[in-house]
Amino acid sequence: MVFDHAFEKQNGSVIFIDELDTKLHPLLLRYVITMFHDEKTNPHNAQLIYTTHDNYTLTKDVFRRDQIWFVEKQKDLTAELYSLAEYKLDDDRKVRNDASYNKDYLLGKYGGVPVLKEFNMWGNSNETE
Question: What are the residue boundaries of the structural domains of the chain, listed by start?
Answer without folding.
Answer: 1-57, 67-129
